[in-house]
Amino acid sequence: MSHSFDPKLLKAAVYGANDGIVTTFAVVAGVAGAQLSSNIVIILGIANMIADGMAMGLGDFLGEQSEQHMRQKQTGRSTTSGLWKSGLVTFVSFVLAGSMPLAPYFLAAIGVKVPSESVFDFSILSTMGALFFVGSIRTKFSDINWFVGGLQMLGIGAIAASAAYFFGAWLEPML
Fold it and tell me: 127: exposed, middle or buried (C-beta count within 10 Å: 0-12, 13-18, 19+)?
């Protein structure tokens, strides 16, 4: 399957989206496990999403810059074009995808009734859907079956979210 898409940008998009969903939901799950308020979920979720997204995007930029400097040292040719693209794609993917676990909390905060027994349950569903979607979409550029790709990403997210929830529940009595 041939696509005229820069593989580095695909990598940045998938990595940013996956990490955005997983780390934001880990914050949501940890706060829910500790039985803290929805306002705390929103504040910590947004703070994590912006700070972590910026750190990942800037880290991606620095990684690209280091790779280009190494290539320049080996070949003697200087190329600085497109350094920012990968970092920007990582950041945007992180924030857009990372907003999915928070979406039910935003909806509840503005008075929209969420279609489940709790906002956290709806956050679990939106997170699972987002993980599966990103995992499935990434397979358009490979030979991986879309369903398998979706399940792979869903599994990674489930492991991280479970750890965060149980640590939050374990630490809650200490608060």
Answer: buried
Q: Which amino acid type is present at position 35? A: Q
Contacts with 112 (C-beta within 8 Å, 6 or more apart), sequence order = none
Looking at residue 37, the DSSP 8-state letter turns out to be -
Radius of gyration for the chain, computed over Cα atoms and rounded to the nearest angstrom: 18
CA distances from 108 to 39, 42, 99, 118, 136 (A): 10, 11, 14, 10, 28
pTM given for the model:
0.84
Q: Residue 51: what pLDDT?
A: 97
Confidence at 55, pLDDT banded by 50, 70, 90: very high
Domain ranges of the chain: 7-170
